[in-house]
Every structure is written in structure tokens, then in C-alpha cells.
Queue: 2 jobs
Job 1
Amino acid sequence: MLVERNRVFQDWIGAHKAILFKVARVYGATHSDREDLFQEIALQVWHSVGAWRGDCAASTWIYRVALNTALAWRRKERKHGQGREDVEAATGLLITPSAQDPRLDWIYERIAELDEANRSLALLMLDGFSYRDMSQILGLSESNVGVKISRIKAELAAQLAKEERNGL
Amino acid sequence: MDFDQMLETWRTQDAAPPYEVNHDVLRQALEAEDARVRRLHRFHRRTLWFCWIFGTGMAVFAGFWIAITITNGWPAIYVITSAASVGLFALGGVTMWMGRGPRAEPGRNFGNTLQDEVRRSLALVDYQLSIARHWINHMLAAGSLFAGSLLFSWTINSSQNIPDPSPGHWWAVLIVVFFVWASFKDRKEMDKTKPKLQTRQRRLRELLAALEARD
């Protein structure tokens, strides 16, 4: 049972670790926050393996677990230490490459400016989920998703236009 | 950068993730979590089994003693005290049963939305907290078994003219030592995890309320 759970978990992490990275980066303000959140998400995904019945794609399931964990985790951070410095020693769980694409940093900065629920939608939108999938994951109606996505897109487009002058 | 280029930039992460995972650290975290959950379940299972076996054995023995007392025509007080012992052993078993918590982790029949996922997580936390909540039942069960053992020991000693302290008394002491140790260990473990679980439970409830209010 445990061997099977670990095997599935390893497969999931291998195939979908980018989801965990993205969610951790969007909801974690500092590197140690991201490591903490990544570990928390990984543990929750590991716990959730037995509950997955295969009635949705593994990526959808992992996204849902990751977003749930991140939203709950974010609330804790807000209450107990929002804005704190990244002074805690990093665990070494996440290894950052030396060079990062500045355009990617810019996208993450813009997403971080959205409210929590819209951040989830922005992540799903950028990862190409359909309105139907988004509505299933977030428990919103498809029309509501459509309205919110249109606003997010408009907001991002306005930011892009603004930054274009700076030569991004 | 236009919108399409932004999407393209975003997708580069799938091919070249912005981080690498240190699998040794991740494995250690998972092993620690697994060990914690297993340790907790194993401990509760063992305590429960000890209680069942000892309580049932003593209750059967006390029932047997009632039969012997009636057959030999010994004073009725021994039947009453033996019957009271059976009652106390049964009470210990029932108290333990009530304090055992859910038998299996919940969360196997939940749907697919984020709310369902939050509910699943909340159910899991409730389940983990339910184990923490029932330590008092262990103490009550210990008290019942201790009183039952002491009473039954007195019944045998008095009817057979055995001087105190008898092996029955040592049994009673052994039970108390076991349950005090078990409850202390249980409490110590829970003291470490309970605040974290309660914080998580509160956050999940807030999140669920916010998600439901949004709809």
C-alpha cells in the first residue's frame, strides 16, 4: 500500500512538479516561504494519493490539492508573518538555477498583484485549462470563470502595454 | 512582449522548471510524515488491543468466578462484587471503544471541486484531531479496569482467605502504570501536533466559508 502510494507520488512529482513550483512561487513571497509551501503541498499530495479515483486528470487533481494547500497556507502567513524578511534558513529543498528569465519574473510579479482567488485563475489560465476544468477545480460556474478570466486578461494586457514602453 | 509571447514564456517552465527538487530533503520530509502517522496509529492500535484482551479475559474470569461462587454456595456478596467487576471491565471496554475515533481516514467519496478538496482536507484534520480528543477516554478506561481489577482481586482474596497484597493487586498496579504511561505518551505526541492541526482546521474552515460565500 505504502510502496504503491510512494510510487504514484514519485510518478506525479516527476511529471507534474512544475505545478508545485508555480503554485509555491505564486503564493510564497520569499524563497524559504516557497520551500515551506512546496513541502506542505508535496505532503498533502502524498496524503491525497489514496483519495484519487482517476475520475479526473492527475494534473487537475494535483492543481486542486496544491491550490487548496496554498490558499490555506497563505492565510497562516498573513496572520502570523506577512511581510517578514526571508531570514529563516532555507531547507535546501528547492535548488534555484543561477539564471532566471526576467520575463518570467515579471509575469510572477503581476500574478502576485492579483487577489488570492484570481491568482488561482491566472495560474490555470496560463497553463491552458479550459473554463470547464477551471470551474470544476475552483467550484465556480463557467460563466463566472469567463467573466473573471476576461478581467484578468484585460489587466495583464494593460500591464503589458504599460511595460512595453520599458522594452520588456 | 505581447499576450501570446507571455503564454509562450510561461510554458518554458514546463520544459525547464525554475527550480530543481532536492529529492533527499523531500524523501526525508515524507519519511518523517509517514513515520509520524504510523507511530500514532500503531500506538492507538496496541493500546486498544491490550484493553480488549485484558478486559475480556478478566470479564470472562469474573463470570467464571460467579459460577463457582454459586455452585459452591459461597456468600452472595462475592457474586455481587464479581458481577460489579464484570460491569467495570465492560465499562472500560466501552469507554475505550468510544475513544477509539474513526476507524479509517475519511475522504474517499468526495467530489472534484476545490471546495470538495477543502472538505476532504478538513475531514482529514478532524479525524486526526479526533484521536487527540479522546485521550481522556483512555484515562477513564484505565480507571474502570483498575477499579474492576481491585474489586475482583478483593473478591478472590476474601473468598479464598489469601492475605494481601496478592497477585491481583499487582495486576491492578500494572494496569495503572500502563495506562498512565500510554496516556502520557499519547498526550506528549498530541501536544506537538495539536496546535498545528487546530491552526490548519481553522484556516480550512475559513477558506471553505470564503469559497462558499463567493458562490
Note: Strands of chain A lie at 94-95.
Job 2
Amino acid sequence: MVAGLLVVWNPKVEFMPQQELDELQLKLLKTMVYRLYNFSIFYKERMKAANVTPDDIHTLADVTKLPFMTKKDLREFYPDRLFTVPRREIVRYHASSGTTGKPTIVAYTRSDIEMWSESLARALSSIGLGPDDVVQVANTYGLFTGGLGFHYAAEKIGAAVVPASTGNTERQIQMIQDLGVTAMAATPSYMMYLGEVADKMGVSIKDTTLKYGLLGAEPWSDKMRDRIQEWLGVTGINCFGASELSGPLWSECDHQCGIHIWRDICLLEIIDPDTGEQVGPGERGEMVLTMLQKEAFPIVRYRMGDITTMETEKCACGRTHPRISRITGRVDDMLIIRGINVFPSQVEYCLHTNPEVGNEFQILVDRKGYMDEMMVKVELKPEAFTDNIIELNALRERIGSRLKSSLNVGAKVELVAPGTLPRFEGKAKRVVDRREI
Amino acid sequence: MSDLSKYKIKQLSIFSENKPGRLAAVSKAFMEEKINILAFSIAEGAGYGVIRVIVDKPEKGLEKLQQVGFMVRFTDVMAVEMQDRPGGLYELTKMLSEAGVNVEYAYGYRNKPCAVLIIRVEDVDIGIEKVLAHGAKLLDADHFQLDSCNK
């Protein structure tokens, strides 16, 4: 089906009138609550504690009767105690960074993978991508959901996929030229970096076939988008998702006015992070998401920690689903370094395993060129101080590689003298983020 | 054996972040205690350094530096005299190699009429024994407690 010149992936759902969407969403919500109450010990106990049963869900507003879920629950019930299907129905696992030493494990049934790619297929179609396109996926493939998420969606809409993953930028540029790549999935900062490397190679991205950047996984600004569009001639499309939800799921349409969140897949709320009460359209608050059709790993009123606003008016493209604006911050201290979520608590946990350093630490984040750089300052304990520079450097490297393997992103380590890092009464402020985005 | 321990020189090893003012803070601390610096070197790590100093009053120096917040410790080194003329260092290092002494680090200073090489080896007791056996002249710890300018 065609709207203007664009092929719409699922016109029946994407253009569904509000009232029908309300009905559909309520039906899905009721089904989900019924299923969880009857088939999951965890959710049943949670609902009992909140004094709610499936019979209490009559309208969409009743979603607020359900208790919130947080990252803490995911950590507490690691690795698989929140899964609600028999093991044999699971066809995939992914993992994301946890808040301490353990990652968060996400499981998928075949239907979960299907809904995930359906959601992103609608998104990619909404910017005009289709079988004539070549999509280079420069997100990491592996436990991180970014690579395979775009891969499946792009294949689903019939585009050709170049599964480049991260790194080897010169080869990425070569493939854009040789294969006529039209869209690239990446972090916005990698897109900028790629532009810089292309300049050095004497290649103008503007003169290539590359027309769309499917950008996300880290905060970015309209200023950065303008720069990417003017300099590289690439339309910067803001994308959103998270591994807990499945992976990258949603994006803006070609009107670039907010990310469409499909109501049959997700029930979106924006709340006041302090009171937990819902706020109205256009009001800033924390995003809370309920995934309506997930099987293996249900997500109910999950507090994302991201601050944004919701727009419920119909989009200029005709799609009736709500849109979220740019993420403007976090309610917690989570950092995003080169697209990877990093919690200061993870750093703390990792440092504890090194007896040579104290408990105080400081994280400094900078943007060098277009790439994020993280430095962790730690206090060397007097008993670990040695006159031997080789040993001290080896210690520094050992801590660095431990951090890297636990955070999935590299960090420079700086040893400092005991007592020199700032001390805090009350809430510690251990992060100095000097990035200008 | 016991008399060889007098050749163990107590070097102060000071951890210092690589930023302006640290070296000034160290030397100010010495000045305030009227401690004289006889030899001095800085080893550069990554973002930090280790300042190595031979002073006339090492105990007092250690105490003072700790007081003003430095991470500091003693490291035993030896001080070998060499001739202050072309070839002096060669003669010494040749001797060290013949004695099978592996140097971790070293730094020198001029101490008329001779010159002195401060040497850190893995095991200072064995090092002292070996170089003495090869006829080297070692300075003893007492030597540094005098004001060497007037020697």
C-alpha cells in the first residue's frame, strides 16, 4: 500500500483510528495481565502485593493499578526467573549491561523476534526504505541487540543488509561506495566519525548513495542532526529501543518529528518520577513502558529512566500512534558511552575486585573528536604503592581490562594518591560528564 | 654481613600525580624541615610519576611528606662512587655487568672530586655484596647525613 510515495508496512495498524487503537490496546493489556497473573509466580505475587487482579483492568487507565518494574528487578531475578515460557520455546538470548557485576539477560520466543522485527520494519518503511535499499548495519552484532535488531528488520522489508558491525571504518566507507549503501544504522557519534575518516580518505559521503542514518543508542541533539545532514547529506533518523524491550524498535518517520511508538506493541506512559503519577501530553517526565505482546520476558510498567515528552496528536504522515520527543536526560546516574549503557555502580563493583585500590572513584567523560572517552580515577592504597613503575603500570592496565570486560566499553584508568578524590556527605556525585552534544 | 647493611641507602619514593605544583610541594616540605636534597630523579608513569630522592635526613623527610599528604615509602638503593672524568661511567657499568648486577633504575650526581651513581637492584643485599667483591667503592648511609656541600 502506498501513502504518497512511501510504502506503508502495516497500514491497517499504523493508520488505525484512535478509538480502535484504544480497543485493541485494552484487549491486549487484559490478555497480558490475565496471562501473567495465571502463569507467572513473580507477576502474580507482584499483583497481589499491589492488590490488583485481572478483574480490575476495565479501561486503559487501569494500567496505573499495576506495579512498576525497574532494572533492580531484572538484577534481582537474574538470569531467568522473570521468563514466563518453557525453556524450549526460547530461540534467542541477548544481554545488556546490568547495574552491577551481572548483566541483564533477555530471552525471546520466535514470536518475540517476529514482533521485534515487525515493529522496526514499520519504522524503516516509514522513512521510505524498502527492497531497493541497501542497509549497512554498523551497530555491534552479538549480545548487544543493536546489530541483529536492524539486521532482521531490514531483511524483513526486503532491503539488502550489509552486516558490517562496528569498527574498520575505512572498509565501511569502501562498502558504502562499492555496494551502493543507502542507509546506515549506527550511533550518531560513529556517523560523525565515519564522515571524518571519509574526509581523510578524500571521499565525500555527500557524493555517495548513502541517504539515511538510522541513529540512536546514545543521546544526541538537533544540532548534531543538522551537522550530519548538512555535512554528510545524510538524513538523520532518530531511533529508540532498549534490550529489555527487545532491542531497537521504533524510529521517526520521514517527517522527523518524534519517534512513533506502536500502540499494539507497547503501552506508553510518561510519569512524574517523584510521585509516579502520569503526566499529560507535552509534559516532561520519565518514560514507562509496558510491552503488550512479549512472551518470553514480559515487561510491565518498566521504568526506563529516560526523560522525554509524549505527543498524542496524529502525525503529519497520517500515523495515529503517539510519538516521543528526544530523550533529554536520565532520572538516574546511567551514562551512555559510545552507545553502551554504563552505571557508576558497575564501575564501583568492578573496582571492589582490586584490593590495591580504595573505594573512592571518579568517572570523567569527554568527547574527543566525535567519540566518547571515559576515564576512571582510583585511589592507590598506600600498601600497594611501590617504587616500581612497571608494576604500577601493570596494575593500571589490569584494572582497565577488568573494567572493559565488565562494562563492554574501554576506560582509561588513572591512579591517584589516597584522599585526593572528592568525598561526599550524602549522595555521591562521582561522574563528571564534560561532553557537549 | 651485618656491616654491609650500612651501604643500604634509604631513598624516598614519592607517588605524585602528574600535575603542576606537586614537585614544588615536595621541595617546599623539605625546605621547611631544612632537609637537603643530594640526588633526585623523576620516573614517569601514566598520569602519575614517582619522585625518587636521596636526602640528608630521610626519616624526617618521610614523616614530613606523610604529614602533608604524600604517599611515600623508603626504597633501599646503593650509591656507587665513580671517577668524574670521561670513561668513569663506563668503568662502573662494565664492573656491574661483570658482577652480574641487573639495574632496575639508576641516576647520577656529581660529588666532587668523584661522581656517584644511585642504583636500584632487585635484591640490594646481593647487589652490595657483588659490587664490593668487584672492588667498587660504595658510599655508606652516614655519608648522606653530612652536608655534602662541605665535604
Note: The first strand of chain B starts at residue 9 and ends at 17.
